[in-house]
Amino acid sequence: MKGIPIQSKLPNLQVSIFAVMTRLAEETKAINLSQGFPDFNCNPRLIDLVFHYIKTGRNQYAPMPGILPLREAISRKIAGLYGALYDPQSEITITAGATEALYAAITSVVQSGDEVIIFEPFYDAYPPVVKYSGGVPRFIRLNPPDFRIPWQKVKNIISKKTKLIIINSPHNPTGAILEKEDLEKLAEIVDGTSIFIVSDEVYEHIVFDNKKHLSLAMHPALQRRTFVISSFGKTYHTTGWKVGYCAAPELLSHEFRKIHQFITFAVNTPVQWAYADILNKKELYLQLPKFYQKKRDLFRKAMLASNFDLLPCRGTYFQVADYYKISRESDLEFVKKLATKHGVAAIPLSPFYDEEPEQQLIRFCFAKQDATLIKAGERLCQI
């Protein structure tokens, strides 16, 4: 019996490049600098806290928005870091990772025919979710080496159909960060409009060279129209636990929760209690920039003798490299060869564009043990 035909909503969508390259890394036994997860464990105290709450019976459904102590802890953290006040009862929602939060936020405001501004290269979840909601992505390209947002182009592309702008800082995959003038330009552009903003800030605690993360929550005019999304996975080296959150004004959070409740309803209960406790240890997230800057600098040093050109990396745990001195083949073919012949897995940048650019850029993840980074650097320097 033949299968029942199905009309795909996204017929051209392929399997995520992250899944493709992680599988290739496993098959080839390559050093995996592709998908963005650490190869070291989280703080032992956090593991002990999860066990504690499992053993003491915190094993049933959590409230749909998340347990209140965790939302209260997040509210205090945001207030302390960014001076922004969010009501933990009505303006903070715990989600099954940041990707679920992105889906709920985009879906809650985008309707058929609405235009959504997306900067490319982009985190690959953005365009499919926009299209699923009937929205129309409008892409604006960020150019190397700095990948700064061209605000005049943003201003020019705004129309009566523009419903949403998706911001990502620190930026995956390029490591670029927003400066104060960027927030001012954005506020000026959306002033007097009904445009919403999704601000993907999952790498908020990984900013280098004495720079500070500038959350859109800091800017009152932006805060009132913005879904601010972050992730415990990036902050506490627990990407596999898939817990994130969204902070947004009450009216936005109300619509957000309508979607959230029918995606996951509730998020892992003992893990929420563990995060609520460990958020009180501010030093764990305040020391993260120094921790990852050492790894960034170590990896860049290990690559000094290579034929790769390393682009600036101001945040995240990703390093973009130009391989034009080595090869002019496509980035996908190059990273496949890199894994199979040289034993290092990376991510090509072309899947993060609507139309493949004429460039030779790939992304390495340096959220790895020092020995892993040194060994990878040795292999890359031999190419």
Automatic annotation (TrEMBL):
Cofactor: pyridoxal 5'-phosphate
Family annotation (InterPro entries): Aminotransferase_I/II_large, Kynurenine-oxoglutarate_AT, PyrdxlP-dep_Trfase, PyrdxlP-dep_Trfase_major, PyrdxlP-dep_Trfase_small
MF (Gene Ontology): kynurenine-oxoglutarate transaminase activity; pyridoxal phosphate binding
Protein's UniProt keywords contain Transferase: yes
Keywords for this protein: Aminotransferase, Pyridoxal phosphate, Transferase
GO CC annotation: cytoplasm
Domain Aminotransferase class I/classII large: 29-373
Coiled coil (UniProt feature): none
Keyword Transferase: yes
Family per record: Belongs to the class-I pyridoxal-phosphate-dependent aminotransferase family.
UniProt name for this protein: 2-keto-4-methylthiobutyrate aminotransferase apoenzyme
